[in-house]
Design brief:
Length: 436
């Protein structure tokens, strides 16, 4: 089913109505589910200590050794609860560590894929490196919220299930990628193992940062990169705007960006952002680090300009429509200038589906059973891209099941330790119901 903006609004209206009806019929916790809850309560201090341990190992995406070290800590923990674990390496030229997979094989219930990631945005040279308590419930923690906390929730939910003998015939794959924050290219290589796991599964649950007890994610926007390069005629500035010299590269780039703002902007769920801009006589730009230098003089017409940015979209149709508008604008050049735009795909969109809605209904029932309140669909326009989007075309998906906190991707990132126990309970009971 194709999801345009009009029927998506209708979808979310129906979704909210369905979830509200479920509040009237909350299923009580079974005897076994109550045992699960007690196991999680008993293990909660251990879970928080485990989180502190992995947070204190730097695993910035480009720190391959650190990413793998965190992966090995989780690998040992999954080995201890009888999962079969493996490390999937990526080609050396991709400069990415690889991924951890943990699996239990069986024939009972839905086949589940639980998705997390090991890497953070904080590289080895970041001043933000250590787990540090702010008060009795909040900790500053690089990657603690995004998303080592979510990884810990997966582990300790499964640990509770295993301690109660509930995984003996379950079919569960845990996938912790090592490059979610800066995906290895091409994604056909870096995400092959994740997609292969999805093809052997029925449901994918993503444990990216939670948006609160009352929300989960049934749709996420995709992400694409774009780059515009402009060439102008280098000349003395006294001749700018003349028939012989034309407008120069910087004026042409300004025209393009202004037209993007006025003519492409405005469609719901569609955003595009120019993140770096250089212009002048000569440029030196490093695509890998997104750093560069420009040289120019006020009395010389700019010869070249470059801008790199990102595009967010809710469907492939929306993405292609935006790209076509941008191409048209780029092709309508000022005198004596030329311009070209290039796009690169990063994350596909995760559109809302009936299957995703059913998963949300099940999560809502679990939350009500635990007396944690109803769970509604979160606005996809407020969420970024995530690994779950790569598998959305193969399985029903639900995301945003991880820890709660603030300031993700900033040196002020926090994780709310008081929420970990409750969210782990929610996860364990949801998994229990899905595999039964």
């Amino acid at each position: 089913m194709k999801y345009n903006i009009k029927n998506m609004k209708k979808f979310f209206t129906v979704l909210l109505a369905c979830c509200s009806l479920l509040t009237l019929n909350a299923q009580k916790l079974s005897r076994m589910e109550k045992k699960l809850v007690k196991s999680i309560e008993s293990n909660n201090e251990e879970a928080i200590a485990f989180l502190e341990k992995v947070v204190n190992i730097n695993s910035g995406t480009l720190n391959s050794a650190g990413v793998k070290e965190v992966g090995m800590v989780f690998k040992n923990a999954f080995d201890d609860i009888d999962f079969t674990t493996s490390w999937v390496s990526l080609p050396a030229e991709m400069n990415r560590a690889g991924h951890l997979f943990a699996e239990t094989s069986g024939k009972k219930g839905k086949k589940l894929l639980l998705i997390g990631h090991l890497d953070t945005v904080f590289e080895e040279d970041s001043p933000f490196q250590k787990f540090e308590m702010v008060n009795d419930s909040i900790a500053h923690a690089p990657g603690g919220n995004d998303m080592k906390g979510g990884d810990v929730i997966i582990l300790y939910a499964l640990k509770a299930l295993q301690e109660n003998g509930l995984l003996d015939d379950a079919q569960i794959i845990v996938a912790y990628t090592g490059d979610e924050e800066s995906t290895g290219k091409p994604t056909s290589v870096s995400r092959k193992s994740l997609i292969d796991a999805a093809k052997r599964s029925d449901i994918a649950l993503g444990f990216e940062t939670s948006t609160g007890f009352n929300y989960a994610t049934v749709a996420r926007r995709g992400a694409s990169g774009w780059e515009v390069k402009v060439e102008g005629k280098r000349a003395h500035s006294s001749g700018i705007f003349s028939e012989r010299t034309g407008a120069g590269a910087i004026f042409e780039m300004s025209r393009i960006l202004n037209a993007f703002y006025n003519e492409v902007r405005g469609e719901e769920f569609l955003t595009f952002n120019p993140g770096v801009l250089l212009g002048g006589t000569f440029l030196d730009f490093d695509k890998e680090t997104s750093k560069g230098n420009a040289f120019g003089k006020s009395n010389v017409v700019a010869q070249t300009s470059v801008v790199k940015g990102g595009l967010r979209f809710i469907s492939e149709e929306q993405k292609e429509n935006a790209r076509n508008k941008m191409r048209e604008i780029v092709g309508n050049n000022l005198p004596h200038t030329s311009a070209a735009i290039h796009f690169n795909d990063s994350y596909p969109a995760m559109g809302p589906t009936e299957g995703n809605l059913k998963l949300l209904e099940q999560l809502n029932e679990v939350s009500l059973s635990l007396k944690q309140g109803e769970v509604l669909a979160y606005d996809p326009g407020k969420r970024g891209a995530a690994d779950v989007s790569f598998v959305a075309q193969y399985v029903d998906c639900l995301d945003g099941l991880g820890t709660m906190g603030t300031g993700a991707h900033t040196p002020q990132e926090t994780v709310n330790l008081n929420t970990i126990e409750a969210l782990t309970k929610r996860t364990a009971v949801l998994i229990y119901r899905l595999i039964n």
